[in-house]
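Figure 6 in text form: structure in, sequence out.
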């Protein structure tokens, strides 16, 4: 058996799906804290999508009658560690103040590598326990060019 190249080229992340149990709270967090804007809506499924740059974050309300396929087989199961959201440049003090104003706890600040190089990240949780890494652009190149 020989290895072959896939018949496509990767373009980046399209969307990530988060399970939530309070859609209004989810939309408020992603809109007010992260600045996401409304995307596609699937009311029959209890699903709302918000734009995060050129990708989507899908919010699927597990309390909605149309969300039967969204509920994990093991209550409290986890299959994602975190999602990294790339941002424009920001002042760290302004980021801290913004998150504090929304009652969002910073779990960790770190400077390390990512797809765009080495830069500053803030790790926070959404109201449903999903860990988000909010990462600024590269502070210095990581050699990938």
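Output sequence:
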């Amino acid at each position: 058996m020989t290895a072959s190249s896939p018949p496509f080229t990767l373009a980046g992340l399209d969307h990530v799906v988060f399970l939530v149990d309070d859609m209004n709270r989810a939309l408020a967090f992603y809109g007010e804290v992260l600045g996401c804007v409304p995307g596609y809506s699937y009311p029959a499924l209890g699903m709302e999508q918000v734009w995060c740059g050129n990708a989507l974050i899908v919010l699927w309300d597990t309390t909605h009658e149309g969300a039967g396929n969204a509920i994990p087989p093991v209550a409290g199961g986890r299959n994602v560690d975190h999602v990294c959201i790339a941002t424009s440049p920001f002042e760290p003090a302004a980021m801290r103040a913004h998150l504090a104003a929304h009652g969002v706890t910073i779990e960790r600040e770190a400077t390390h590598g990512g797809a765009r190089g080495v830069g500053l990240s803030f790790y926070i949780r959404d109201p449903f326990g999903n860990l988000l890494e909010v990462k600024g652009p590269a502070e210095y190149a990581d050699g990938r060019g």
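Caption detail: Strands lie at 15-20, 37-42, 47-52, 55-61, 83-86, 108-114, 117-125, 131-135.
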